[in-house]
Amino acid sequence: MKAYIGKFIKKDGTERVMTFCRICDIPEDFLEEKLSGGRARILPEEMELVYDLEADNFRTFNHATMMGDLQEINIDAVFETENQVSSTEEKDNSFNVLKHMVG
Predict the structure, then answer these.
(1) CA-closest candidate to residue 34, choices 17, 55, 16
(2) Sequential pLDDT tens for the chain (103 residues)
(3) Looking at the 3D structure of the chain, how many domains does it have?
């Protein structure tokens, strides 16, 4: 699966490096579970909703303040729904494996 590493300046002026997947690359069943019940936000053109692999949550990536280029990487990510992961320990282990693969 494609993932990206990018660096940008946050709203508060600090630098942020983010490892993320684009929404179009994430399995639909995972998205449906994570996005259900939420309200849609309209983001400015330079902002992109992404899935932050380190935070294990959705974040926005600011392309307007990006420093350098995005680095595209390939990962063996497993996006599991709550029904597929039965315990917190298993979730922690799968995140640690993913974190190790990303770097």
Answers:
(1) 55
(2) 899 999 999 999 999 999 999 999 998 888 888 776 667 778 999 999 999 999 999 999 999 999 999 999 998 866 766 665 444 444 454 444 444 444 4
(3) 1
Structural domain span for residue 7: 2-102
Which residue from 72, 51, 95, 66 is spatially nearest to 3, judged by alpha carbons?
72
Tokens of 103: 């770097």
- Only one residue has tokens 């002026």, namely 13
Q: Name beta bridge partners: 67.
A: 7
How far apart are alpha carbons 8 and 69 in whole angstroms? 10
H, E, C per residue of the chain = CEEEEEEEECCCCCEEEEEEEEHHHCCHHHHHHHHCCCCCCCCCCCEEEEEECCCCEEEEEEHHHEEEEEEEEECCCCCCCCCCCCCHHHHHHHHHHHHHHHC
